[in-house]
Automatic annotation (TrEMBL):
<comment type="pathway">
    <text>Cofactor biosynthesis; ubiquinone biosynthesis.</text>
</comment>
<feature type="binding site">
    <location>
        <position position="112"/>
    </location>
    <ligand>
        <name>S-adenosyl-L-methionine</name>
    </ligand>
</feature>
<comment type="similarity">
    <text>Belongs to the class I-like SAM-binding methyltransferase superfamily. MenG/UbiE family.</text>
</comment>
<dbReference type="Pfam" id="PF01209">
    <property type="entry name" value="Ubie_methyltran"/>
</dbReference>
<dbReference type="GO" id="GO:0031314">
    <property type="term" value="C:extrinsic component of mitochondrial inner membrane"/>
</dbReference>
<dbReference type="InterPro" id="IPR004033">
    <property type="entry name" value="UbiE/COQ5_MeTrFase"/>
</dbReference>
<feature type="binding site">
    <location>
        <begin position="194"/>
        <end position="195"/>
    </location>
    <ligand>
        <name>S-adenosyl-L-methionine</name>
    </ligand>
</feature>
<dbReference type="GO" id="GO:0005759">
    <property type="term" value="C:mitochondrial matrix"/>
</dbReference>
<dbReference type="GO" id="GO:0110142">
    <property type="term" value="C:ubiquinone biosynthesis complex"/>
</dbReference>
<protein>
    <recommendedName>
        <fullName>2-methoxy-6-polyprenyl-1,4-benzoquinol methylase, mitochondrial</fullName>
        <ecNumber>2.1.1.201</ecNumber>
    </recommendedName>
</protein>
<keyword id="KW-0496">Mitochondrion</keyword>
<dbReference type="GO" id="GO:0032259">
    <property type="term" value="P:methylation"/>
</dbReference>
<dbReference type="GO" id="GO:0008425">
    <property type="term" value="F:2-methoxy-6-polyprenyl-1,4-benzoquinol methyltransferase activity"/>
</dbReference>
<dbReference type="InterPro" id="IPR023576">
    <property type="entry name" value="UbiE/COQ5_MeTrFase_CS"/>
</dbReference>
<keyword id="KW-0489">Methyltransferase</keyword>
<feature type="binding site">
    <location>
        <position position="166"/>
    </location>
    <ligand>
        <name>S-adenosyl-L-methionine</name>
    </ligand>
</feature>
<keyword id="KW-0949">S-adenosyl-L-methionine</keyword>
């Protein structure tokens, strides 16, 4: 695996990339540019940070601050805000993935490890179930042979591995501590990296997941292209993200809840109103199920489908690199 990159380098690289793709560079001699064109030339490309308009260069830093600030309270806030429903959504993502033994998973924007831990539990349960059935079929094993089959943790994953990649050191720190406390060791690795410039070779992973992460990325199209690049042919892209509620009554209640309750919870529990204001605003700025499906197709994925959950509060999008 490539080495993790430092965040200082990251912000520099981000600024340079924005510059490269912004069309700011012109091959025209300066003297030929009219004053109007010159003033356009100077304007940095803009995007949104929640409902605020910011330059593309600024957005990454602002998102970084949000997750640096919420990291310690991230897990408890998710349970409180969703009354535990986010756990069901994440379980459903794993059910949809249904990883086979040997699956190499890349979990981008993996934060505190919720998807990675579920993946390890899932493949372990699958593998152990298979082992049990095999052992039952073999009549004459000694107890030592049986015990050995249960002891090797690495074996119990059937060669599956998960790589958690996130841009935020604080989120990864919490994730690593959780892994240590819960005894996860084998088949798990953590790397600091940007979804827009993944520090991995081409055609490396069987599955790419991103849960509640892509909404925060500055250039979503770039992140999708990177997902496509690092997947093996036949590999699968799975994204769990907030989406569009289509029922008008639920939508009204959800808006009330989002804008009246969530920032208050953020202030009371995490001492951070602004980050939770950003959360609810960023949800409203994210494309609908159909629009996001098109973006995934534009990145080269095929057989793109989605499933809306909890009236469309979130959706799981799936696509294949074929
Ligand atoms: C900074 O960025 C982030 C930080 C993070 O910590 C996390 C993330 C990423 C996010 C996640 C991993 C998941 C986080 C989850 C959510 C944002 C919440 C998702 C919302 C729901 C599952 C519930 C949606 C609610 C509705 C459909 C409407 C029902 C709402 C009501 C009945 C309450 C209506 C509210 C009012 C009228 C305002 C005044 C009410 C009060 C003061 C009472 C407060 C009430 C409650 C606390 C009850 C809450 C009720 C529910 C949660 C309903 C759940 C039930 C169902 C949906 C069936 C990140 O990016
Ligand atoms: C809401 S959390 C999701 C964490 C985890 N996937 C989950 O479902 O609980 C969003 C995560 O996206 C990460 N993130 C934001 N922009 C990113 C980027 N450009 N590349 C990688 N990770 C990013 C944040 O640091 C944060 O950990």
């Amino acid at each position: 695996m490539a080495a993790p990159r430092s965040c200082g380098l990251w912000s520099y690289a981000r600024a340079m990339r924005s510059y490269r793709f912004s069309g700011l560079r012109s091959s025209w001699p300066g003297s030929l540019l009219s004053p109007r064109l010159l003033s356009q030339e100077k304007r940095a490309p803009e995007t949104h940070f929640g409902f605020e308009t910011v330059s593309e260069e600024e957005k990454g830093g602002k998102v970084y601050q949000v997750f640096e600030s919420v990291a310690k309270k991230y897990d408890v806030m998710n349970d409180m805000m969703s009354l535990g429903i986010h756990r069901v959504w994440k379980d459903l993502l794993l059910r949809k993935m249904h990883p086979l033994p040997g699956t190499q998973l890349l979990d981008v924007a993996g934060g505190t490890g919720d998807i990675a831990f579920r993946f390890l539990n899932y493949v372990q349960a699958q593998y152990q179930g298979k082992q049990k059935r095999k052992l039952r079929a073999q009549q004459n094993l000694s107890w030592e042979e049986i015990a050995k089959k249960y002891q090797n943790e690495e074996d119990s994953l059937g060669g599956s591995r998960v790589m958690v990649c996130d841009i935020n050191r604080e989120m990864l720190k919490i994730g690593k501590q959780k892994a240590f406390d819960r005894g996860y060791k084998a088949g798990l690795a953590w790397v600091l990296g940007d979804a827009e410039e993944l520090p991995f070779d081409d055609d490396k992973f069987d599955v790419y997941t991103i849960a509640f992460g892509i909404r925060n990325v500055t250039h979503i199209d770039q992140a999708l292209q990177e997902a496509h690049r690092v997947l093996k042919p036949g590999g699968r892209f799975l994204c769990l993200e907030f989406s569009q509620v289509n029922n008008p009554l639920i939508s009204r209640l959800y808006d009330l809840y989002s804008f009246q309750v969530i920032p208050v919870l953020g202030e009371v529990v995490a001492g951070d109103w602004k980050s939770y204001q950003y959360l609810v605003e960023s949800i409203r700025k994210f494309p609908s199920q159909e629009e996001f499906k098109e973006m995934i197709e534009d990145a080269g994925f095929q057989k793109v489908t989605y499933e809306s959950l909890t009236s469309g509060i979130v959706a799981i999008h799936s696509g294949f690199k074929l």
